[in-house]
Design brief:
By secondary structure, the protein is an alpha+beta fold. The protein contains four helices and three strands. A three-stranded antiparallel sheet has the order 1-2-3, with helices on one face. The structure holds zinc ion (ZN).
Length: about 110
C-alpha cells in the first residue's frame, strides 16, 4: 500500500512568534522537508507579542495532540485490521495504547 500522507510521528513546533508548524518529527523538532501544516498568527496577535495567548495560529492543545497523533492512530488501526488483537499486551494493543496516549495525554 502506498502511503501518500506525510509519515509520522508528527509533532508541533513553535517556529517564531508568528507561526506554528506541524510535521514529521526529527531529532531537533519538525523536519522542515516534511511539514504537514503551518499555522500563522494574525497581525494583531503578532503585534501583541504575547506567547501566552498563542491560541491564535494554533489549534486548542487537545485538538493539536489529536491531529499530531493521526499517523499513529492510522498505523494502529491498520495493524489491528491486518493482524487482529485478543491479548492485552500484544503488539496491536501496545500500538493502540501508544496512539491513544499520544492523542490524549495532558
Ligand atoms: Zn490573532
Amino acid at each position: 500500500m502506498t502511503k501518500k500522507y506525510t509519515p509520522g510521528p508528527w509533532v508541533w513546533e513553535l517556529q517564531d512568534k508568528s507561526e506554528t508548524i506541524l510535521g514529521k518529527q526529527s531529532s531537533v523538532g519538525v523536519d522542515l522537508e516534511n511539514i504537514v501544516l503551518s499555522c500563522v498568527r494574525c497581525e494583531a496577535c503578532q503585534k501583541q507579542n504575547n506567547l501566552d495567548s498563542f491560541r491564535c495560529g494554533m489549534p486548542e492543545p487537545a485538538d493539536a495532540k489529536l491531529i499530531a497523533a493521526a499517523p499513529d492512530l492510522l498505523a494502529a488501526c491498520e495493524y489491528v485490521l491486518e493482524h487482529g488483537t485478543t491479548k492485552p499486551n500484544d503488539k496491536a494493543s501496545t500500538m493502540l495504547r501508544e496512539a491513544v496516549r499520544r492523542a490524549t495525554e495532558v
